[in-house]
Amino acid sequence: FNGLSEQWYPNGMKKSEGKLKNGEKVGLWKYWDKRGNLTQDIDADAFGRGRGSSSGFIFIDGEKVMKRKNQ
C-alpha cells in the first residue's frame, strides 16, 4: 500500500497519521492521545523504524501527568 494512513479512536479523535510506501512507514508520522493532544512526532526511515521525539511528557487517560526524566 502507498499513500496516507490514518487511524482513529472509537471516540472519533485521530490516533495517528503518516505515509506508507510499499506498506512501510515513511516520512513524518504523528500520534495523538484520545483527547487529541499530540504525543509524538516520528520521522520514519525507509524500513518503517522511527527516529524522533515524543512530547517529553507522560500521559495517562489523555492527561499530562509528568515530564519524562531523560528528555
Structural description of this entry:
- The protein has 71 residues and is mostly beta strands.
- It has strands at residues 3-8, 14-21, 24-32, 38-44, 50-54, 57-60, 63-67.
- It has one domain (3-66).
- It is built from no helices and seven strands.
- The strands form two sheets. The chain has a five-stranded antiparallel beta sheet, with no helix packed on it. A two-stranded antiparallel ribbon has the order 6-7.
- The termini are far apart.
- The mean pLDDT is 75.
Write the layout of secondary structure elements.
Blueprint: E1 3-8, E2 14-21, E3 24-32, E4 38-44, E5 50-54, E6 57-60, E7 63-67
Antiparallel strand pairs: 1-2, 2-3, 3-4, 4-5, 6-7
Major sheet summary line: 5 strands, antiparallel
When the domains are counted, the total is 1
**What is the tally of helical segments?**
0
Point out poorly predicted stretches: none
The whole-angstrom Rg is 13 Å
- In helices, the fraction of residues equals under 10%
Could you give the count of β-strands?
A: 7
Summarize this structure briefly.
With 71 residues, the chain is mainly β. The protein has strands at 3-8, 14-21, 24-32, 38-44, 50-54, 57-60, 63-67. Helices cover 0% and strands 62% of the residues.
Write out key terms for the chains shown.
5-stranded antiparallel sheet, 71 residues, flat, 0% helix, mainly beta
